[in-house]
């Protein structure tokens, strides 16, 4: 992924993730990248009003070179296929939306039409490069366990002081049941054996203070286990603080003379 010297960035969503990405671009820490369009449902409270767009038509009229989606699965489903069909590459955070067959079909149709590409942000998980490499030799099993604090599951009937399994099954099951908590599961599925072969358990842990993921992979290559404990974003307990940084890192890597795999 590489772009011209001055690359215009369009950003969908400016919450906990999008706000951190916007701040990194606007601070000048990513030279050559310019934020030219921000699509949100409501205008920003301060700053960026001149680049705010209230609808997709106005957003695309600003002709961004690259679009970053950081607005949640509903926004992904309704907006990303149209952005891709318009010929614009997308770095997406809310890839749990692809567990929906209709959304996946719309994305594939848009890519076939325009030739644009969808780049999956690694988000709050690691080792996707190793997982994708191992897939080339053949994978036997991919298992993921996610543990998050109770605050990450608003609206779920949880027993105070209890640790509960809230989902067990496939990555598709997890993504459909908890789309805002399952972007890790979706990224793992896309890098590995797919939504229906990736086993995922989601745990609401009353003692957890971090968003934890345990990834276990085996195949012809051998085996690897990854455990990561991410601090939640201060702005959104369901989101790891590192998620925005994965996109910022991808942007930095796109312009690096020496690009390290991710």
From TrEMBL:
InterPro entries with a match to the protein in the record: Asp/hSer_DH_NAD-bd (IPR005106), Asp_DH (IPR002811), Asp_DH_prok (IPR020626), L-Asp_DH (IPR011182), NAD(P)-bd_dom_sf (IPR036291)
EC number in record: 1.4.1.21
Annotated ranges, domain Aspartate/homoserine dehydrogenase NAD-binding: 13-120
Record domain Aspartate dehydrogenase: where: 166-248
Source organism, top-level taxon: Bacteria
Single GO term (MF): NAD binding
Record carries keyword Nucleotidyltransferase: no
Note: The iminoaspartate product is unstable in aqueous solution and can decompose to oxaloacetate and ammonia.
HAMAP family for the chain: NadX
Function: Specifically catalyzes the NAD or NADP-dependent dehydrogenation of L-aspartate to iminoaspartate.
Family membership noted in the UniProt record: Belongs to the L-aspartate dehydrogenase family.
Entry protein name: L-aspartate dehydrogenase
Gene from which this protein is expressed: nadX
